[in-house]
Amino acid sequence: MDKILRVNMTDLSTKIETVPAAWAGLGGRGLTSTIVAAEVPPTCHALGASNKLVFAPGLLTGTAAANSGRLSAGAKSPLTGTIKESNAGGTAAQMLARLGIKALIIEGIPTEDKWYSLHVNKDGVSVQEETELIGQKNFAVIEALEARLGKKTGILTIGPVGELKMTAANISVKDPDSKIRSHGRGGLGAVMGSKKIKFISIDDQGAPGVKIADPEKFKVAARTFAKALLDHPVSGEGLPTYGTNVLVNILNEAGGLPTQNFKVGQFAGADKISGETMNETITARGGKVRHGCHAGCIIQCSQVYNDKDGKYVTSGFEYETIWGLGADCCIDNLDDIALADSIMDDIGIDSIETAVMFGVAMEAGILNWGDSKEMLRILSEEIGKGTPLGRIMGGGAGSLGKAYGVTRVPVVKNQGIPAYDPRSVKGIGITYATSTMGADHTAGYTIATNILNVGGYVDPLKKEGQVELSRNLQIATAAVDSTGMCIFVAFPALDIPECLPALIDMLNARFGINLNGDDVVNLGKHILKVEHQFNIDAGFSNIHDRLPEFFSTETVAPHDAIWDFSGAEIDEFWNF
Amino acid sequence: MQITVKLFATFRNDRFKVALQEHSAGTDCRAIVLDLGLTEEEIGVLLVNGRHATLGHVLHDGDTLSIFPLVGGG
């Protein structure tokens, strides 16, 4: 029987609750956003006692469905002030699903100045005081907990950045190799820190496992789905070979690779930080080109990146991180970017927000363009140690920009704009402007259709069709984010006709229900509307669905593109 | 006329990263693609001077043609 675990950090009590009927058909983002909208006052302080931190595995998580092992984390975001859902791979989602845990809700704030940990197992959840690991970085926490509780323990942890409640703090999730995946965006690590929880450990021994209503039907659908993932050139070949970093070159060629804090759209050093170069480097140094972030991932876009001596540096080395610390900061040294990626995992900070912040810091003159050594020092010595400058930087791009009087600060709703220039890839600009999450490329990934010729083609340099494209993708994404699926299943789903029906068949077979395509679209619409209403009640209006002014006043080379959507045109997005 | 041809991802295997090629006037993208031993079906994205183009797009002296298989990420 599925259950909800609830932890009250104010009185340190825990409860096991039955799943309300209204939540039964929800999982992942659909469930975290529904719970946050129902239980968190939208005007509350995100780091105060009224906010709640919610974890939920997806509807298909814990089953044999390929790529279904994502965990959603939700709360009111201390970075944006909006509702937030951030999902990650790792081992925790599948363990929670097998334990029959639909959601873990953490509320309140301890009255005493002490740190705690939570332990989840087949009997529920318990709260313990924690002293040993406070102040420790994430890799040390994982190592210590594996020694303390066993190698198989699932772990969610925050580093020093989360403990200090910096608003770019992430929540780290142990992956199958005892490395780290991240609930990166929106500062959810600061929410966990505000509740004085250093880590959550999970033991799934004796878990009942996930019951499938119609195992035969599930098996057939799962096979069709997996075949579509392997057959599509993006999920079957491009991502496994080059990782997400394959995008550096194509965005650079298309003039959409934001460079020098969004000054121009092409980077002279692009080839040195590209997916092709990364593939050669990994291969030459005995790393791994393919690697999955969770058991059952067949796309394997992750990798193991070693240094020149063949020693492990990082994994899950993503395009957005490499773009941000690379092109946007004019750094062409991939080894230094890899080191920075590892440090960000270790101290527990979002690598996208931090990369965008460094571009702003370079514009402010805090460090020079291209100075990767100073960037590494700042990560370890300022942000990692919580110096006054480090805390301003750990607050993200908006925080740093405000402190230093920078006018070119690429954020929407105070969240850093990622790796695609909205002037030369206009569809993604609509997503940045309208997403309920603040600037978030994954919310409605128009790059697929604007740049990659996946799901058709909409000219990235023209305004026509962009609002509709972003709307359709944001609706679909909200639904996919509820299944526990990796968002990269969207590539085959957009092109291979059997893929999406197979996904729906798996949902039907899992729960013994009868959803059709329209139901799934309606679920996506419903989730977006619930999130949007939370934001409106938190004080946001259409005026916040806008890009920073400089995108409308400065053109970007090489296409001399400009952001030329009127407010009324953007507002059409919510017309559904 | 001179065309700069750039190849990416798997298309570089046993070929090149970038080459300056001489072609007769009126050559289209398809001719260059086939000349490289690639098939039309393999092509994911063609960019001419950074703008999306079709196989039938006729090139001009000094153009840069970037050729990609279907790739993605995000």
Can you describe what's shown?
The complex is a heterodimer of chains A (576) and B (74). Chain A has helices at residues 28-39, 92-98, 138-149, 160-163, 188-194, 215-231, 233-242, 247-253, 275-284, 319-325, 334-347, 351-363, 372-383, 388-393, 397-403, 426-434, 447-450, 466-480, 490-495, 499-511, 517-537, 550-553, 567-571, and strands at 3-8, 13-18, 52-57, 71-76, 83-88, 101-107, 116-121, 124-129, 154-157, 171-174, 180-183, 197-202, 288-291, 302-306, 312-315, 411-412, 415-416. With 576 residues, chain A is α+β, with helices and mostly antiparallel strands. Chain A folds into three domains: 3-202, Aldehyde ferredoxin oxidoreductase, N-terminal domain (Aldehyde Ferredoxin Oxidoreductase,  A, domain 1), CATH 3.60.9.10; 214-242 and 429-576, Orthogonal Bundle (Aldehyde Ferredoxin Oxidoreductase Protein, subunit A, domain 3), CATH 1.10.599.10; 243-421, Aldehyde Ferredoxin Oxidoreductase Protein, subunit A, domain 2 (Orthogonal Bundle), CATH 1.10.569. Chain A has a six-stranded mixed β-sheet with strand order 2-1-6-3-4-5. The model of chain A has no long low-confidence stretch (mean pLDDT 97). Chain B has a single domain (2-68), classed as Beta-grasp domain (Ubiquitin-like (UB roll)). Chain B has one helix at residues 29-35, and strands at residues 2-7, 18-22, 45-48, 51-52, 64-68. Chain B has a five-stranded mixed β-sheet, with no helix packed on it. The termini of chain B are far apart. The relative contact order of chain B is 0.32. The mean pLDDT of chain B is 97.
